Amino acid sequence: MQNAATHKRRHYFYSFLVGGALPLAYAPLGWFPLAVLMPAVLFWFCWHATPRQAFKLGYLFGMGFFGVGVSWVAVSFYRFGGMGPVLSFAATVLFVLFLALFPAVMAWLSRRYYSTLKKSYYLLLLMPALWVLFEWIRGWILTGFPWLALGYSQTDAPLIGLAPVFGVYGVSWSVAMSASLLVWAVLGRKRQRVQAGVVVLMLWLLAGGLAQIDWSRANGKVLTASLIQGNVPQNIKWRPEQRAPTIELYTRLSRERWDRDVVIWPETALPVYFHQAKSFLENLALEASKKGGATLMVGLPLLAAQDDERYYNALVRVAADAAGKVSIQIYRKHHLVPFGEYIPLKSVLGELLDILRVPMANFSRGAADQPLLEIDSQKVGVSICYEDAFGEEVIRTLPDASLLVNVSNDAWFGDSFAPHQHLQMARMRSIETSRPMLRATNNGISAIIDHHGVVKDSSPQFEVAVLDGKIQPQQGATWYVRLGNAPVLVGLALVLIVCSFAVRQASRERKQTRYAE
User: Which domains occur in the chain, in start order?
Assistant: First the structure.
């Protein structure tokens, strides 16, 4: 009895360690096989656990997973949020403890159903489906936190071929299914091991074959682009005395590149409102039209009206034609970051703005459907920072958009995993949509990504840099662009329905056996 209890305690400890190792499957390390192996260990631990034990195992796994994977939130709390070390640590721990509930409830539900299901149902159907279901729930509840979905770890692995068909959640499902098949092979008989091996091989070969398909085709000429990375420190960015040097820096770096098709400044590159910078930007557009004709895209805040307190996180596109006529287009960020750009339940939590001391932290939400911006007659799907984490929102601009533009500010997270993880998510959007992306950031990692999700060139972090490159606009639509997450959600519903019927059938058989006795 004592040995069994010790064995279970070891499982709890190992579950925490295994969860902590899973983030190594993502960028910057990219050890993608861990994305199969680490969930497989959790599935195996839950195999012999009670529902309560499974909840604990899943919770400890989640604490390790998110404790390492999103530890970077502490950087923004402490270095830029004005919170002391104790409060920053407490806020990060609370955030991790909340996120850990998702794998915990997943494990509990899977084991709860397992009490009346056959083991093959439990491993091959239920656990992978519940894993993906709770990833999807995490991606929309409280406006969503889809960070570290299992599929993101596969951007450089064969299973990524499923992304243009089923999106990141489809890739997550294939990874989780591979994990369950691995456990089935270890615990099953010889015949089951062979079956598991064949299914895994077929799954990975199918994904590898889909990766060879070119889901889009070239649309128009190759565009030349320059991404301006000013590397203005976050802690001084909004100081009044920093405005003039910031504007001078971005202007000087851009004037050398008016012969490009587009010059992009990152999210809130200008620490002034649009109406304050409008004349300046129009003059820059006129200057560009005389020296090459570049379109200028600039991130900055935008007042709804000068007598209105509402303001937006915006990307402004400014261009002038040969006749000197200036045209302006504006994209207002739709999906805001909770507690970073707005405060949920402001009437209750409004004082949190004063505690966090985050500048420009009460943005208004832009419309979900906005007119597409243009670069040299090519329509552009724009996202600002956190928005490129939501594939179902990015595809709203498609198939009309022939390229994607993302402007971000990852300076909030310092030298952590976050900028690398964020770039990996941007790559997933290019793979899902078969569209290239221009990604301009304040302090790195700026990148030019082709329609296969390959980073053609990128900037160093924490340096003033200009990333020059070319990009080929694309046309056409992947299955994911046309159907979004619907196929995955339908598949999850079918699995849960099948398992529910199996549970009822098993319960009936058990009752009949009792009556017969």
Answer: 2-213+485-516 (no CATH), 217-481 (3.60.110.10)
